[in-house]
Amino acid sequence: MSETLDKVSQEIENLRDEMVETLVELIKIPAISPDYGYEGEYDKAQKLLEMIKDWPFDKVEVYNAPDERAKNGARPNILAYYYGEKGEESERLWILTHIDVVPPGDLSKWTVTEPFKPLVKDGKVYGRGSEDNGQSLVASLYAVKAMMHLGIRPKRTIILAFVSDEETGSKYGIGWLMKEHPELFRENDLVLVPDGGNEDGTFIEVAEKSILWFRVKVRGKQVHASMPDKGLNAHRVALDYAYHLDKLLHEKYSEEDELFDPPKSTFEPTMVRGPADSPNIAPGEHEVVFDCRVLPRYSLDDILNDAKVLAEEVKERYRKEIEGKTLPEIEIEVLQRLDAPAPTDPNSEIVVLLKDALRKLRGKEATVGGIGGGTFAAFFRKLRIPAVVWATLDEMAHQPNEYAKIENMVEDAKVMAALALL
């Protein structure tokens, strides 16, 4: 099998220039969520289907999640199958990438090229979506194309999934597929999500923290700052509440897990907003947002309950009747919630295979750990399907002058091929 892997790796090298051309063509097409006011992924999905229409995939399926805000009312999800040596009975390896990208942001900060005018320079391809997730999308395509060119059937069936809506929650992507088409997934599937990693490709993510974003809205009564007794300063109430909530959460949920970096749960106040636009106004409203990344052992319901109990205590502390109304009011609004499933077993087959592939191809020992962010590997873990997040990345995602390193794309394609062959 090592000889076969050598042949496939060499063929991937031969396809290097074509890989770059494919990435360039895909970057040219914006695929930004309607959540940001754009049309979605339809055009990019059509381009991808056109590119692979003559490739000898055994099956290509398109699942359009309906979304009336998007072009043609569709958020496309593409599955391309290349069967293993036992045909449809082969063990299956999913490689999932996403076709959507984030908005370009401040255009003045794009100093190398414009976001959707890709530029190849110094061994890199610049453009929005180049690294996130174009690099890995193209790598997965050419891991398979190299086998096709050589007439090689891998040990495992490869399912390349190109999905929508990863950047805004996966409601129209992998989440929709799992809800509407559960028959597509099997408990013994192996899953690679190449959408996170480090610069030398030695980090394998097997766990994620739970994510909870919530907004605290405090309402008092606006008043001139020289006569504070006539109103209720929402800013002071919110400061008191935020300080004590921050202290409570850090003290109560303080256990550590060395699988993660940082090893603790984190609770960060991130955004504040108030209507006061003058130094002499004591505001009647104040908002503060918390970003919580919580170890899987803790319940997000417990954290929300603690926040609500504290809100009642603070309300009582500042309680005041003004014009027949009891103030302050404190409202807690959940902005985003993702309850982390159990981690992928560090000794599971996909982890062992990936470590072996990196050892054979790069002579490197990979480490296994958890992250504070969220990926759609979590969707598979909820189904008890072991999934890993891995890629070789300079971590340029969402930044101006985003780029993909060509060498990373080519070398990652070899690793992807190894996962199917070994």
Question: What composes the largest sheet?
Answer: 6 strands, mixed
Number of strands: 19
Report the C-alpha radius of gyration, rounded. 25 Å
Write down the CATH topology of the largest domain: Aminopeptidase
In what order do the strands lie side by side in the largest sheet?
1-2-6-3-7-18
Question: Number of helical runs?
Answer: 10
Distance between the terminal alpha carbons, to the nearest Å?
Answer: 7 Å
- In terms of quaternary structure, the protein is single chain
CATH architecture of the largest domain: 3-Layer(aba) Sandwich
How would you describe this structure to a colleague?
This protein has 422 residues and is α+β, with helices and mostly antiparallel strands. It has two domains: 2-208 and 341-421, Zn peptidases (Aminopeptidase, 3-Layer(aba) Sandwich); 210-338, Alpha-Beta Plaits. Helix content is 33%, strand content 25%. The protein has ten helices and 19 strands. It has helices at residues 2-14, 16-27, 42-52, 130-150, 174-180, 234-252, 300-318, 349-362, 377-382, 406-421; strands at 59-66, 74-82, 92-98, 119-121, 124-126, 157-163, 190-193, 203-208, 210-219, 223-224, 266-273, 281-282, 285-294, 320-322, 325-327, 329-338, 367-371, 387-389, 403-405. The strands form six sheets. Strands 1-2-6-3-7-18 form a six-stranded mixed β-sheet, sandwiched between helices. Strand 14 and strand 15 form a beta hairpin. Helix 1 packs across helix 4 and helix 4 packs across helix 10 (406-421). The longest helix is centred in the N-terminal third of the chain and has 21 residues, at 130-150. The chain is elongated and about 80 Å long. The N and C termini lie close together (7 Å). The mean pLDDT is 96. Keywords: Aminotransferase, Cobalt, Hydrolase, Metal-binding, Transferase, Zinc. This is Diaminopimelate aminotransferase. Its cofactor is Co(2+); Zn(2+). Residues 259-279 are annotated as: Disordered. InterPro entries: ArgE/DapE (IPR010182), Bact_exopeptidase_dim_dom (IPR036264), Peptidase_M20 (IPR002933), Peptidase_M20_dimer (IPR011650), Peptidase_M20A (IPR050072).
